[in-house]
Amino acid sequence: MKGKQIRMKGSDLFIKALENEGVEYIFGLPGEENLDFIDSLRKSGKIKLILTRHEQGAGFMAATYGRLTGKAGVCLSTLGPGATNLVTPTAYAQLGAMPLVIITGQKPIKTRKQGKFQIIDVVEMMQPLTKYTKQVTHSAHIPSMVREAFRVAQQERPGAVHIELPEDIAQETVEQPRIFDVVDYRIPDASKESIQKAVAMVKAAKQPLLLIGAGANRKRASEALTTFINTIGIPFFNTQMGKGIIDERHPLYLGTAALSDYDFLHEAIDHADLIINIGHDTIEKPPFFMDKDDQRKVIHVNFFPAEIDDVYFPHLNVIGDIAGSLEQLTNGLSTHAKQWDNTYFIDIKHNVCTHLSTYEKDDRFPILPQRLVKITRDIVPANGIVALDNGIYKIWFARNYPAYTQNSLILDNALATMGAGLASAIMTKELYPERKVISINGDGGFMMNSQELETAARLHLDLVVIILNDNAYGMIKWKQEAEGFPKYGLDYGNPDFVKYAESFGATGYRPNSVEEFKNILKKSIDSKGIHVIDLAVDYSLNHEILNVLIKEYSTKTKK
Fold first, then answer.
1. Do residues 325 and 362 share a domain?
2. Based on the domain organization, do 19 and 66 belong to the same domain?
3. Quick one: DSSP state of residue 472?
4. Mean pLDDT calculated for residue range 89-105
């Protein structure tokens, strides 16, 4: 006797496959080509649809979910203009190693009735931006394609994948549908030979230094790193996207390489005879430059080999599970622990701290970014989260803001796109409702996706949004001045941000002094609802400090 016949609509099968992957959210802005998918999603008791006001917001939220959880975030758009609006978030996830699954709609592929209206080759468009991009041509293929997409998105190095679901395929009936098991896997450990070589190089070093990059932002790797540093006693610094992987209150933490060269921290980098580079790759802005005549050795510890270029060519690759490699290195070096003289590095740390604290108590208004960072760190609790957009203030937060826990300072140093900060903060607060979350944006980046304030209000989130207002693209002004160009083309006007916030149902503030800002921030972070602070910022010292004084100090110390 034959088994019971099971029939299922393609879109229903797609949702079942997503549920099988443990998907909790789908972020998106649907179109008519997604209506079957949306109706199937409506019947899901496991997946929450978060409707956004722009596809960019959806993509940034989904990518942030992937970054924070390690599980692929999912975003949805229609065909044509909806899909093209996801290009920037796709690149954001791909360069930032954030697992992301993008689902786009398409006109029927078997019986088209509208010619070329809104039709572009989205699969081809996504090819250079993703790890995997496919169109579903038969509904029976949906489960295997979904399983493969999630596998590819989440495996090291994580990134973006894309599936196009045409309207007629979503409506198609599948006979005897099959859902594939989610099969976990473990990345192999590094070879004993490479571990032994690394141990020998570390033992031979007189002034070793540890660098922590974004690839080490995995729970097991963070724990293994902390054990390694506590056991072996090597000072460490991090890249911008490596912040918080180890508590930066640690006595051996030297600082963050927010600039590629000439910063106070680079005195330590220049002094080291060995750098153990954990989890960094050249997608992120380089924390230091290698030179062919450099006597310093570099060990690359990562899930994948180093990509060689003119400024990064390590002498040894230790490839495998980062946590496993660190555990093996800890065992191999435990008898050699704490035999290094770190006096020079600790003196440099004192120099770094003295430099960073110079303007922390300066109460001039508009506020200096250094003062903003200090106030924020003093008010945000240890497990609180600051989500940054992209602008010159990101450098000040990377250098001056000590992160105490993983993912407590969320910034992007890979694509470094403007417009992602507010969406990232919204996802963070949705995921961690019990934690305090502050979104910090330049006025330029904020206005690129400010409409997502409505999304935050609809989700009833408790969120603080700070807009650093200088009526200009401040980062580019800084670069323009550094290159000796006259000021041109970077000034604009802003709306009344207080009234703008109130139009979304948020509470708006415009402090007129540093003290007033402190009081507003303290009140806002402990209050319900959305609080938007229009904060005038003074960037007039950026050029003098970041372009002139640092280079003068660096040149003097190298003589």
1. no
2. yes
3. B
4. 97
Name the one residue in this structure whose structure tokens are 């600039």. Answer: 259
Residue 557 lies in a domain: no
pLDDT tens readout for residues 509-552: 999 999 999 999 999 999 999 999 999 999 988 878 877 777 66
Q: Is the peptide bond before 366 cis (omega within 30 degrees of 0)?
A: yes
pLDDT at residue 223 greater than cutoff 90: yes
Residue 181 falls inside a structural domain:
no
**pLDDT of the residue at 1:** 40
308, part of any domain: yes
Range of the domain at 232: 192-350
H helical segments located in 233-380: 266-271, 322-333, 343-356, 369-379
Structure tokens at 239: 């890249």
- Please state, as a whole number, how many other Cβ atoms lie within 10 Å of the Cβ of residue 234: 23
Q: State pLDDT tens for residues 435-487.
A: 999 999 999 999 999 999 999 999 999 999 999 999 999 989 888 888 899 99
Q: What is the CATH number of the domain that holds 505?
A: 3.40.50.970
- Letter for the amino acid at 519? N
Distances (CA, A) of 39 to 45, 88, 273, 534: 12, 27, 61, 40
Same domain, 420 and 476: yes
Same domain, 388 and 535: yes
Residue whose token pair is 């062919």: 292
- Residue 309 CB contacts under 8 Å (≥ 6 apart), including other chains: 282
